Amino acid sequence: MNLLSGFRAWFWQRLSALYLALFFLYALASLALSPPQGFEA
How far apart are CA 35 and CA 1, in angstroms? Predict the structure, then answer.
């Protein structure tokens, strides 16, 4: 029971980290491909 709980916690931690990494990469890609107008000051 304890092993299953630990594995579940590890799995969700890795999944959330992967989701955040993908979201961060998507944000960087969107900014790099289409910069907002008037961004360069």
Answer: 50
